């Protein structure tokens, strides 16, 4: 009798423990479900905000007489031809020796006469197309064609590297015009190219921001040469255009916001509520329902995702404003976020230095801003020289009318042969220094 009572007591305790564990598991599940639901609401709102912001971009046109409408509308008729251009260039790039020579010419390490014949033919065949694409940059409003933005359908009709090919050939166009003595035309090509590269960063995430910065790397020296040789009136017009371009450069924080949303959509479509999926913009909903193969998770891992992805989205939201801080302040703020993946269940396998890629992107965008400021400074000191016959002793104000994000501190340094060096004060940017000649 006593043994039976003991067994019943043990059984009751075991049942109680099992029920307690089940209640705790159910409570944990519902807490995760509730937090995931809240994060899903934030995701829907962000997807709509970013989609709307990327369709009609209000940035200052770089010309006094902009084309009516959006960049999307101006580029859309050219997209099939630009696609053929991209494919032709991609086929040529399989020959590494030719590609290296082509890139050396782009960067000014070789003269245009050494451009490999296949690339010369590609360039000459597509010059009218390049000129039309550059002219599209004069649109009153920005906004990339559908299929190039981060929150469009993932099976893009167009390669996200398409416009990078245009910018590379634009650099060749400017060099060709300079060799023909057409400094004014070369300067116009450069300014249009910089404007198109600026617009690449709107709506295309981190990769778009890096492609935009890469376009400025390609065009920087041809633009400096064109500015140096342009007549005073051209330099004056360039000053206005460069200030508008600098004002219109998109903060990198927006690209991180887009990555936060696109990453989440590719990962957690399965754990979003049906009504949340229905509320997403069309492109965002397609991404959620058709994730990349690398993001497809087994169903039993859904509970891990419900725990992790809201935390990861919050982490990226914390990264975003850090991207717009001065370079000397970013590392400490990013380092404070390094340990965050350790609190996750599924995404804890991410590398400990996961923030390093964001610092690399921010460094490239620092260089992009510095290049515009250096070109602007070059135009200003050349104008001063033309008016007064001497170089200025102090740098004229770069942005006197409107504040810009992270203006570049520059110093003037007289050099040999009555030249003037324009040098960024930040050590990491000093390799970009320009020399102004009489």
TrEMBL record:
Annotated transmembrane regions: 6-30
The alphabetical list of record keywords is: Membrane, Transmembrane, Transmembrane helix
Name of protein: DUF4012 domain-containing protein
- UniProt source species: Archangium gephyra
């Amino acid at each position: 009798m006593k043994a039976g009572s003991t067994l019943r007591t043990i059984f009751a305790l075991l049942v109680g423990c099992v029920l307690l564990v089940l209640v705790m598991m159910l409570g944990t599940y519902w807490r995760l479900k509730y937090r995931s639901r809240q994060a899903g609401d934030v995701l829907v709102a962000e997807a709509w905000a970013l989609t709307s912001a990327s369709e009609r971009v209000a940035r200052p046109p770089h010309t006094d007489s902009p084309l009516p409408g959006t960049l999307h509308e101006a580029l859309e008729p050219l997209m099939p031809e630009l696609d053929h251009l991209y494919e032709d260039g991609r086929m040529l790039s399989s020959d590494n020796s030719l590609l290296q020579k082509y890139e050396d010419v782009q960067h000014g390490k070789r003269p245009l006469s050494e451009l490999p014949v296949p690339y010369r033919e590609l360039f000459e065949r597509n010059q009218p197309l390049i000129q039309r694409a550059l002219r599209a940059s004069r649109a009153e409003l920005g906004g990339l064609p559908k299929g190039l933005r981060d929150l469009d359908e993932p099976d893009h009709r167009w390669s996200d590297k398409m416009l990078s090919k245009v910018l590379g050939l634009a650099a060749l166009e400017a060099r060709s015009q300079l060799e023909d003595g057409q400094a004014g035309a070369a300067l116009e090509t450069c300014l249009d190219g910089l404007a198109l590269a600026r617009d690449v960063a709107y709506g295309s995430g981190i990769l778009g921001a890096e492609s935009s910065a890469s376009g400025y790397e390609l065009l920087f020296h041809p633009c400096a040469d064109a500015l140096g040789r342009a007549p005073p009136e051209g330099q004056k017009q360039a000053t206005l255009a460069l200030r508008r371009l600098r004002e219109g450069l998109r903060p990198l924080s927006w690209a991180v916001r887009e990555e936060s949303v696109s990453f989440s959509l590719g990962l957690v479509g399965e754990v979003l509520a049906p009504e949340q999926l229905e509320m997403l913009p069309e492109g965002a909903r397609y991404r959620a329902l058709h994730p990349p193969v690398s993001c497809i998770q087994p169903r039993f891992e859904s509970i891990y995702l419900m725990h992790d992805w809201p935390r990861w989205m919050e982490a990226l939201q914390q990264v975003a404003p850090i991207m717009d801080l001065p370079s000397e302040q970013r590392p400490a703020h990013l380092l404070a976020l390094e340990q965050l993946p350790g609190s996750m269940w599924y995404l804890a396998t991410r590398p400990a230095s996961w923030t390093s890629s964001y610092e690399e992107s921010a460094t490239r965008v620092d260089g992009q801003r510095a290049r515009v400021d250096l070109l602007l400074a070059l135009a200003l000191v050349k104008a001063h020289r033309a008016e007064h016959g001497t170089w200025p002793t102090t740098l004229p104000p770069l942005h006197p009318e409107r504040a810009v994000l992270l203006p570049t501190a520059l110093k003037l340094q007289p050099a040999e042969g009555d030249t003037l060096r324009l040098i960024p004060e930040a050590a990491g940017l000093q390799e970009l220094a320009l020399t102004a000649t009489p």
